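Teaching assistant here, posting this on the class forum so everyone can see the example we discussed in section. The complex has two components, and the goal was to see what a joint structure prediction looks like when all of them are supplied at once.
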Amino acid sequence: DSGVTQTPKHLITATGQRVTLRCSPRSGDLSVYWYQQSLDQGLQFLIQYYNGEERAKGNILERFSAQQFPDLHSELNLSSLELGDSALYFCASSVEGRLQETQYFGPGTRLLVL
Amino acid sequence: GQSLEQPSEVTAVEGAIVQINCTYQTSGFYGLSWYQQHDGGAPTFLSYNALDGLEETGRFSSFLSRSDSYGYLLLQELQMKDSASYFCAVRDRSGNAGNMLTFGGGTRLMVKP
């Protein structure tokens, strides 16, 4: 158990819908990273927040957005969902704002878009 | 951007030693990380090499050669529970000039009795 929690574990929805994934970092960690893992694309970095501010951005689609709240939990919002958005979504956390190679991953949210 | 190459699959028997290679092409290099992921599970950090040489942590060791843009993960005394996917990763510049981790495609290790 990494100490990072994610909800929900599974999510099934339809194309065109919007969902929100939630992540709570390890106690004391200020950075949250979001990743998408699909069979054809592997593990892809989406975005990082540090202490409420966006710190780094990967190949995140415009239909996706994220934020980090004052209590440091983070939410990833996925809208206008397409079949290709079906994937595992992980969040990870680390202590500092600068990139750390040691990141602690949550159990993931498995999203299925039908 | 960065690119990393690692074999897609490796098979070994219990008790054996296996080496998973990773070659990378980078515009700037800080170090090489390794993560383990069991089926249906989350990636777990294994090791990080910033300098050339071998780092040992129990049955797992990781090696880096910066001049060859190459590293490997060495797993000794293989156990069935080592069956998992192993990812190498390097630091990269992100779209807004922050830093991010770029992962290789992963090597699926199957340990047979």
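For the discussion questions: Chain A is about 0% helix and 55% strand. Chain A has a mean pLDDT of 93. Think about how each of these relates to the inputs above.
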